[in-house]
Design goal:
Elements lengths: L1 H4 L4 E4 L3 E4 L2 H4 L1 H10 L14 H8 L12
Antiparallel strand pairs: 1-2
Amino acid sequence: GILRGAGFAVRLEAGDTLVLEGRAVQHPEEVATVLVEGGEPPTRLVVVDEDLEAHFMRLVGHHSPTHGGDR
């Protein structure tokens, strides 16, 4: 896809939600520019800042109770 071609790591989540990390979080304007120039302007672009506990729980396959899941 367009984003992978621009060097972004992308994964599909929750049906039609694309999740990007790393550079995309620090520079969401680059994501928007790549999509617009590729002819696929985003309908919504959101940066979510994850706390350390939520990040760890996601990595080990669990969800934090404060983030809508069960342990």
